[in-house]
């Protein structure tokens, strides 16, 4: 696989292309006692601590684990972001975004997947959020649905 013609990032004084970032970002061999070059999959759900919650990065896999941290760093690097978040399910990601909003905020949504559609129809109302559904290919419909209180435009495609 050829490196991209435009350099994406500097790493250890060498310029890395997107292809290299995709396979190397977040994979620091010094993070692993085995010094593995490819991030091992950590299946543990809890971690040993000399004194609970003092100076240890990982406590319980629901909040973070080494494998997920490596993936988040990798995805952030590919998007030139400072950090990234990954979730165990689409609903986990949706709920996290929703809780960034406040009562009265408007969300403009494409019709999207059935589960997402149903979640917004049933749960957003209970949280005091306003929802406006628009056909995903209707550019004018999206533009006209955006109001002063619109805080999120949500689009999904298969």
Automatic annotation (TrEMBL):
Its cofactor is pyridoxal 5'-phosphate. It holds the Pfam family Cys_Met_Meta_PP. InterPro entries: Cys/Met-Metab_PyrdxlP-dep_enz (IPR000277), PyrdxlP-dep_Trfase (IPR015424), PyrdxlP-dep_Trfase_major (IPR015421). Its EC number is 4.4.1.1. Pathway: Amino-acid biosynthesis; L-cysteine biosynthesis; L-cysteine from L-homocysteine and L-serine: step 2/2. The keyword Oxidoreductase does not apply. It is an enzyme of class 4 (lyase). Keywords: Amino-acid biosynthesis, Cysteine biosynthesis, Pyridoxal phosphate. Belongs to the trans-sulfuration enzymes family. This is cystathionine gamma-lyase. It comes from Aplysia californica.
């Amino acid at each position: 696989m050829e490196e991209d013609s435009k350099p994406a990032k500097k790493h250890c004084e060498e310029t890395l292309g997107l292809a290299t970032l995709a396979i190397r970002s977040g994979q620091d061999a010094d993070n692993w006692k085995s010094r593995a070059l490819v991030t091992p999959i950590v299946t543990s759900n809890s971690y040993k601590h000399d004194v609970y919650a003092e100076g240890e990065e990982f406590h319980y896999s629901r909040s973070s684990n080494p494998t997920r941290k490596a993936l988040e760093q990798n995805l952030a690097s590919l998007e030139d972001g400072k950090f990234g978040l990954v979730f165990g399910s689409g609903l986990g990601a949706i709920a996290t975004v929703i809780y960034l909003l406040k009562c009265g905020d408007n969300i403009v949504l494409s019709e999207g997947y059935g589960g997402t559609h149903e979640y917004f129809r049933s749960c957003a109302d209970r949280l005091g959020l306003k929802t406006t559904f628009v056909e995903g290919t209707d550019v004018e419909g999206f533009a006209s649905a955006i109001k002063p209180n619109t805080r999120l435009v949500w689009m999904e495609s298969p």
